[in-house]
Specification:
The structure is a single chain. The chain has about 170 residues and is mainly α. It has one domain. Helices cover about 75% and strands about 0% of the residues. The chain is built from six helices and no strands. Helix 1 packs antiparallel against helix 2 and helix 1 runs antiparallel to helix 6. The two termini are about 15 Å apart.
């Protein structure tokens, strides 16, 4: 990994950590955090491009493509949001990951996050299978029995940074 990639990863990790904190505290990921994360990612892309000596038009085109890929990732996840598999804040958070580390790495991190969430769900549900009376079925309104997807997302992105991409996509 280059120095610039570490900078993007550290900033993304801080954003994801603050999203985990607010998600655990209030069951929401604020739009202000999403906008701040996206804005900081775009500013960092701009500064990195200027530092590397890229021309402004090509740099703006690259930033536009990253934003378009962010929207594509969001559009890909809307069916999961409609099925209430993940929350709207998590969908937007994955879009921010695309701005920071690219589409391919974000997609790999998302797949790792799905794997981690399955493991966490199994750990969460295991006491109910071992001792049937220990866990009671939750109501639809009972928020305490939900798994916050921001936690597997953070762990998935960190796993992706160590293990590498599942897909060799150029973007």
């Amino acid at each position: 990994m280059t120095k610039e990639e570490y900078t993007f990863l550290i900033l993304l990790t801080l954003i994801l950590l603050s999203a985990v904190y607010t998600d655990l505290k209030s069951f929401r990921i604020p739009n202000a955090l999403i906008l701040t994360g996206g804005g900081l990612g775009l500013i960092l892309l701009l500064l990195e491009g200027l530092y590397q000596g890229q021309k402004i038009p090509s740099l703006l085109l690259f930033m536009t493509v990253r934003c378009a890929l962010c929207l594509c990732m969001t559009a890909l996840l809307i069916p999961l949001w409609k099925l209430k598999a993940i929350g709207g804040g998590d969908v937007k958070l994955l879009g921010i990951c695309v701005i920071h580390i690219g589409f391919g790495r974000s997609l790999s991190g998302f797949i790792y996050a799905l794997f981690i969430s399955v493991l966490l769900s199994g750990i969460y549900l295991m006491p109910g299978f071992v001792l049937p009376g220990l866990r009671k079925p939750s109501d639809k309104q009972d928020r305490m029995h939900r798994i916050h997807f921001s936690i597997p997302l953070l762990l998935g992105m960190l796993w992706e940074s160590k293990m590498g991409m599942l897909f060799d996509l150029p973007f």
